[in-house]
């Protein structure tokens, strides 16, 4: 199972989290986020990662040229805004994660074209006025319905030490993603929480 730790702003923390065994490490390239990092910082973060950790850059409604530039640095681009399929399909499928912020079952219809083409999807909690990093727990019942149809799904939205075991006892996703619940303050992780989170997921995986 992929473990993605997101919202990293410091190269030193990126290095430590990579050494702890995170499969994906995310940075936020969205200026309105308190976790925003610029291109120079993203390059520094990339350089601090082990080869086994992929760098994911999170974008919100960026233009095509900017995404192309980011793909020179990032391994994967996470489209966390209102990007539609006709935009997303301009980029290599294996280097893209498309996010759906879920609130109702009718959204499954919009996911179908991505499912048909085997894209990696990330499901996050919907919150009015926020694109992500809400810290609010995702709707597990709705998640279960989506996972019955498709399994290349990274689960996100308010995951932390308080709920990861309970979530994994109910579903077995392709990956899990955590950010704000592992922080001391926005953009700064509590490394001991990150360590425990990764250990819980990896041990759950090897015992099930
Ligand atoms: O963290 C942000 O500020 C952010 C801003 C814009 C888009 C996405 C953002 N964060 C991502 O949201 C998910 C869920 O985060 P959380 O665990 O609920 O805090 C995760 O991928 C974050 O990196």
From TrEMBL:
Pathway: Amino-acid biosynthesis; L-tryptophan biosynthesis; L-tryptophan from chorismate: step 3/5
Protein name: N-(5'-phosphoribosyl)anthranilate isomerase
GO MF: phosphoribosylanthranilate isomerase activity
Enzyme Commission identifier(s): 5.3.1.24
Gene Ontology biological process terms from the UniProt entry: L-tryptophan biosynthetic process
Pfam families per record: PRAI
Family annotation (PANTHER family): N-(5'-PHOSPHORIBOSYL)ANTHRANILATE ISOMERASE
Broad class of enzyme this protein falls into: isomerase
Family: Belongs to the TrpF family.
Source organism of the structure: Sulfurihydrogenibium azorense (strain DSM 15241 / OCM 825 / Az-Fu1)
HAMAP family: PRAI
Domain N-(5'phosphoribosyl) anthranilate isomerase (PRAI): 3-199
Keywords on record: Amino-acid biosynthesis, Aromatic amino acid biosynthesis, Isomerase, Tryptophan biosynthesis
Catalytic activity: N-(5-phospho-beta-D-ribosyl)anthranilate = 1-(2-carboxyphenylamino)-1-deoxy-D-ribulose 5-phosphate
């Amino acid at each position: 199972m992929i473990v993605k730790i997101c919202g990293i702003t410091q190269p030193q923390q990126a290095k430590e989290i990579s050494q702890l065994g995170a499969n994906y490490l995310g940075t936020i390239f969205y200026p309105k986020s308190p976790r925003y990092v610029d291109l120079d910082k993203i390059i520094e973060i990339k350089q601090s990662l082990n080869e086994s950790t992929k760098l994911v850059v999170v974008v919100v409604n960026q233009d095509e040229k900017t995404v192309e530039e980011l793909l020179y640095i990032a391994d994967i681009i996470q489209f966390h805004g209102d990007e539609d399929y006709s935009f997303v399909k301009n980029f290599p499928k294996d280097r893209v994660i498309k996010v759906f912020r879920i609130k109702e079952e009718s959204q499954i219809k919009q996911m179908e074209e991505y499912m048909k083409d085997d894209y990696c999807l990330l499901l996050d909690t919907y919150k009015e006025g926020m694109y992500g990093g809400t810290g609010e727990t995702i709707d597990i019942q709705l998640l279960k319905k989506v996972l019955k149809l498709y399994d290349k799904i990274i689960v996100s939205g308010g995951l932390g030490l308080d709920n990861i075991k309970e979530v994994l006892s109910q579903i077995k996703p392709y990956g899990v993603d955590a950010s704000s619940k592992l922080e001391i303050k926005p953009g700064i992780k509590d490394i001991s929480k990150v360590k425990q989170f990764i250990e819980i997921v990896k041990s759950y995986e090897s015992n099930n």
